[in-house]
Fold each of these.
Amino acid sequence: MTNDELAPTSARSVAAVVFNPVKVREAVLRAAVEAAEREHGWAPSLWFETGAADAGAAAAREAAAQHPDVILVAGGDGTVRAVAEAMHASGIPLALLPSGTGNLLARNLRLSLTDLPRAVRGAFAGVDRPLDVGFAATRTEDGVVTRRAFLVMAGIGLDANMAANTSAELKRRIGWGAYVDPIARSILGNAQFGLRYRIDRGRSRSLRAHTIIVGNCGTLPGNILLLPDAVMDDGLLDVVAFRPTGAFGWMQIGSRLAAYSMFHRSTAGRQMLQRTPDLKQLAHVQAAEFEARFDEPQLLQLDGDTVGDVVGVALSVVHHGLTLRVPRG
Ligand SMILES: Nc1ncnc2c1ncn2[C@@H]1O[C@H](COP(=O)(O)OP(=O)(O)OP(=O)(O)O)[C@@H](O)[C@H]1O
């Protein structure tokens, strides 16, 4: 039976499932979804596969065109990013079934990464919460401007090189440990780049940095808390520029990130962190918009996927641009 034949004809609710067949065990996923349909009296769900050349945009558009009550996304951050970009304006809630390697969005939302039945039940009977959607308008050397969404982070410099140089096979086998080698090489190379930037359309300033990360969420791979002030639905992006000078600078950044992870868990710890002055090597600012022009083309990554070299980027946020459906509690 095709999805058209299954399209909702009655008052029964219906879900759409967009899934990455490379990342999920389809039979297990279908069994969990069918169990939830029976439990909640929903119509049979509509199914859409992502493809090697299209990480989810086409599937998400087809899914949204059927006006389902919720769209479940089974895949990693790349799949979620592509799906959210294509369907966020529809207003249909999105439920995550984390199935990637990093699952950074799910980690930042503190969702279970292993309990598929719970994640599926959450899609059928969870609660809706708003999420800000980041947008990156990039300009390439030949003048082409492209606008893409991101939900977790945009990274320029070391961060984007890490995303580009980490082999998918290694990531699959050893997870985030695969990032150690590219990080080490980038630190030893200590390549900095020059840029001119503006915050919230203010004065243009220049800066040299090793890497710049602009986050909607604060936690990096390996559970490293990079942006302790980042809140996913506050209408703001958190911008941090890594500007270490030599090995000592990297050590200071390392100790500061360790302190974030250690103290952020308690209220007293968070208050102490708020009183601690920013580290010069780790300059941080919150903004609704961050624009940058680079002296040389720089690699950009969005939610872990490399976009390519860009000469400029404007990063902004749509406050409550997406509705997420998450499990209760
Ligand atoms: N049908 C398919 N066949 C082959 N490859 C696919 C197919 N559908 C999607 N892909 C590939 O899967 C990639 C997206 O993977 P996804 O983001 O789901 O997982 P991940 O990379 O492990 O996630 P994370 O960023 O969380 O580590 C896309 O680059 C896309 O090319």
Amino acid sequence: MTGRLAGRVVAVHGRHFLVETGAGRYDCVTRGKKGGLACGDRVEIKPTGVDAAVIEKNLPRDNLLYRSDRFHTKLLAANVDQVFVVTAAVPSPDPGLLDRCLVACEAAGIPARIVVNKTDRPETAPWLERLQTYAALGYPLIPLAAKTDVAPLAGWLAGRTSILVGASGVGKSTLVNALVPEAEIATQDISEALDTGKHTTTHTRLYHLPEGGALIDSPGMQEFALGHLDQADLQAAFPEFRPLAGQCRFYNCRHLREPGCAVLAAVETGAVARARWRSYEALCRELDKAAKDYR
Ligand SMILES: Nc1nc2c(ncn2[C@@H]2O[C@H](COP(=O)(O)OP(=O)(O)OP(=O)(O)O)[C@@H](O)[C@H]2O)c(=O)[nH]1
Ligand SMILES: [Zn+2]
């Protein structure tokens, strides 16, 4: 690889990628159509100027977190060790969005944790209560108030690459600013390097943590489309279905309204949370609709 440098994508802005290498950072473009790149992707680049380069090669990924509908694929991050889905009781939370985030993590094979921000707000108690369902499924809950103390989260981050995802207004920026002392400066640096103007809140970027490890911030989302998943992916992404595998009357049961369905029976007894099953059902319907539209 003469003249080439190995690096990692640390910020994405449209078709520009800021790549960090042992020899500094480069504002990069891809050569031709190589498919998208995400924050955290490893690449080989060839400098074309002091701080400009072309991406010559995308290196294999350990994993990729993304969302997609029929028209767009939105890459969130690659090569991450864990995803923190940030929630808060205010503004009013959307459990459907939380489920979609978790399904995306399961499908990508990335461990997910749930941050419950704004514990200083009295509305938090019922939300935290509701989230016990998720704790029972094995998703750790991390309650904290980003405004006053981020220590409960900090302990999870050292030495790993993590990404924060979540709805708009849950406090992701507040968390990043508290965890990364130079976050504001880093953001400005990135904006200058990529020439994007001062406030690029709509883009994904990677920050280095003082204790080692990296934190990727992603733009607040209203929805999380999962057009890339098929029926089998969906079923596999609900951990509460796993102990029931093979117990439905029909081997190809979709757990929607089939007689003798073990999942539906578990919803009736409360062993599977009805709200979770509803999220599953909504995702199945979307899948069917997409298949119909496509025909
Ligand atoms: N009460 C309370 N408010 C908080 C806390 N953390 C953040 N907020 C507030 O929540 C609002 C949204 O915080 P941001 O950090 O901008 O949220 P965000 O998730 O980055 O939002 P987007 O930029 O839209 O993605 C701000 O008014 C914060 O001051 C907290 O621990 N307690
Ligand atoms: Zn079934």
